[in-house]
Amino acid sequence: MIPILDVSRYLAGDTAELARLGAELRDAFENVGFYHLRGHGIPQTLIDAMFAACKRFHDQPMDKKLTLKIDRHNIGYMPLGGSIARSSKVNNNTKPSVNEAYFLRRERAPDDPDVVAGIRFRGLNQWPMDLPGFRETALAYMSAMEHLGRRMVRIYAVALDLPADYFDAAFACPNMIQRMTHYPARPEYEDNEFSIAPHTDSGFMTMLAPSEVPGLQIRLPNETWIDADPAPDCFVVNGGDILRRWTNDRFLSTPHRATNVSGRARYAIPYFFDSHPDTVISCLPSCQSPGNPPKYEPISYHDYASWYADRNYVHLSEAQKAA
Predict the structure, then answer these.
(1) SS3 state at 69
(2) What is the pLDDT of residues 2-30, one digit of tens each?
(3) Which pLDDT tens digit goes with each residue over 240-256?
(4) Beta-strand (E) ranges in the chain?
(5) CA-based nearest residue to 152, from 55, 243, 253
(6) Which among 47, 133, 143, 62 is positioned nearest to 104, based on CA atoms?
(7) Cα(280)–Cα(298) distance, rounded to whole angstroms?
(8) Residue 45: what pLDDT?
(9) Is the CB of residue 147 less than 8 Å from the CB of residue 271?
(10) Dist. CA 103–CA 313, nearest whole Å
(11) Which of 123, 157, 102, 129 is nearest to 286 (CA)?
């Protein structure tokens, strides 16, 4: 049901693979909105180390985690009940999602011009002090994922009938978010309650490494919910609202949700890969015509991400109300 894209030969240097992969990706996004990514080249040892780091972080006492409480840049620790998915068009979500998460973004130095200027979502990461090796593992994983994402955008360009290098400049210094999530085991849920409520992602590409504990489901265009956890050797990849908007609704931003009735804690390490925040998202030339004009006004990635975050994260919503 969910297509599989094997990119091993392309990543090894066979650029002739672009045409095949572009066609397969186009079919995946026009009909499902998700695909399984095989041959991605991320070492299993690094994936395992990142899952272990995620567990180490969440195993800390609450008072330790709260010293890194999430800030206006959406960096740091978000306790249980910290998000309500208000962007859903398929469910009226009324309760906070039952998960806690720790967020990282691009690593920056204190003298980085964007840090000095106080630009939102470009602040300093908040690192735990008592977890030796944690920072090194997280940065190694994020670096590997950034490299993969920058290779993948050429497949997207070909899939959209554009030159292979069309997106290169927009993703030369991409926006990235690394989320490390803990879904507590929950024998049953209250009405309209989820580990993460039905929602669509905000951005261009989300890459999710396979977890030992299943729980992810996606909603197909025919309104059927299906299990979507990846095979052990695959990432599960989806597009978000920015990709849908950029393609004039040609590519899907598919709703998804998660629950955890396994009896075990579930951990997830989704990596969100997006264009540079200053990129203006306006309808791609291959996705419009006289009979299919642009549906959306141009908007910068930064402005769209700000709007999305303010709607979906409790601490930011409260800050907006207070302001």
Answers:
(1) strand
(2) 999 999 999 999 999 999 999 999 999 99
(3) 999 999 999 999 999 99
(4) 4-6, 34-38, 76-78, 100-105, 175-183, 196-199, 205-208, 216-219, 225-227, 234-238, 256-258, 266-268, 271-274, 280-281, 299-300
(5) 243
(6) 143
(7) 6
(8) 98
(9) no
(10) 12
(11) 157
Taking the C-alpha atoms of 29, 30, 32 and 38 in order, what is their torsion angle to the nearest 10 degrees?
-30
Q: Which superfamily does CATH assign the domain made up of 4-322 to? A: B-lactam Antibiotic, Isopenicillin N Synthase; Chain (2.60.120.330)
The whole-angstrom separation of Cα 275 and Cα 282 is 13
pLDDT at 299 over 70: yes
251 token code pair: 């590519």
- Per the structure block, which two tokens stand in for 174? 């991409």
The first and second tokens of residue 259, run together, are 């629950």
Q: Does the global pTM surpass 0.85?
A: yes
Cα 11 to the center of its chain, rounded Å: 21
Distances (CA, A) of 150 to 11, 130, 193: 11, 33, 36
The alpha carbons of the chain give a radius of gyration, in whole angstroms, of 19
Cα separation, 86 vs 307, in Å, equals: 11
